[in-house]
Amino acid sequence: MVTNLIVSFFSFSFFLPILLAILSSVPPTISSNGFSIGETTVRDLQLAFKYNRLTSRKLVEFYLEEIQRLNPVLHGITEVNPDALDLADKADQERKTKAPESLSRLHGIPIVLKDNIATKDKMNSTAGSFALLGSVVPRDAGVVFRLRKAGAIILGRASMTEWSFFRSSTAPLGWSPRGGQGKNPYTLGNPCGSSSGSAISVAANMAALSLGVETDDSILCPSSKNSVVGIKPTVGLTSRAGVVAVSPRQDTVGPICRTVSDAAYVLDAIAGVDIHDHATIEASKYIPKGGYAQFLRIDGLRGKRLGVVRDFDNLLYLTPGSEIASKETFRQHLNTLRQRGAVLVDNLKLDNITELYFTDYGEQVALRAEFKLSLNAYLKELIASPVRSLADVIEFNKKNPVLEKIEYGQDIMLQAQATNGIGKTEKAALEKLERLTKNGFVQFMNKNKLDALVTPGDITARILAIGGFPGISVPAGYSKDGPFGICFGGLKGSEPKLIEIAYGFEQATKMRKPPPYKKLKL
Question: Is the CB of residue 357 less than 8 Å from the CB of residue 436?
Answer without folding.
Answer: no
